[in-house]
Amino acid sequence: MPGTPAPRRRPRPANAHPRRNPRAANSRPAPPRRRPRAANTRRPPLRRTLRAVPASALAAVALGGAIGALARYGLLVALPPAPGTFDLATFLANTIGGLLIGALMVVVTEVAPGTRLIRPFLGVGVLGGFTTFSTYIVDIGRAVNAGATLLAVVYAFATMAAALLAAAAGMYATRRLVIREHRTPAPE
Question: Which residues contact 110 (CB under 8 A, 6 or more apart)?
Fold first, then answer.
């Protein structure tokens, strides 16, 4: 009714504010805080992003990923890790994968840059499915939990160093092979 004063509410105690004290009675939890983004850095929706990628590239990544994951599984079955020991299968997968990624990147960027589906199939798919840095992190955690902290530290640095050195070696060796092929005169 107009003219009737609104009922007075009792003021809340300071500790009952929902954002200051989420445990207060009749309060809602504070919404999660979002990290502020810089201007014009909004990500497009996933649907629009996937539509921008050709279906053939997505199929190449999916097929290659399945092949790479099966190859890694085969390596894991051949060299099963024991708890608290150096996981040779994951170490080899990451090192061999690094070597092949290094070689592949030289081929697709310098030797045959026009090939459209080789990088998604072999690089992202096969080698992305074959290498496994997530398992590498889990292996480090398992070693620490088993009380083998020194092994975990050695494994962490050895795997990363071996994968990076293997990638550099793959790039170097592939470039050397390509340069030698271009310099060798054709037989008459």
Answer: 175, 178
Q: Which residue has the tokens 């955690």?
A: 141
- Look up the pTM and report it: 0.68
Say if CB 75 and CB 89 are below 8 A apart: yes
> Which portions of the chain are predicted below pLDDT 50?
none
pLDDT in tens, 71-80: 999 999 999 9
pLDDT of 69:
95
Over the stretch 20-37, which tens digit does the pLDDT of each residue have?
555 555 555 666 676 666
**Three-state SS sequence of the chain:** CCCCCCCCCCCCCHHHCCCCCCCCCCCCCCCCCCCCCCCCCCCCCHHHHHHHCCHHHHHHHHHHHHHHHHHHHHHHHHCCCCCCCCCHHHHHHHHHHHHHHHHHHHHHHHHCCCCCCHHHHHHHHHHHHHCCHHHHHHHHHHHHHCCCHHHHHHHHHHHHHHHHHHHHHHHHHHHHHHHHHHHCCCCC
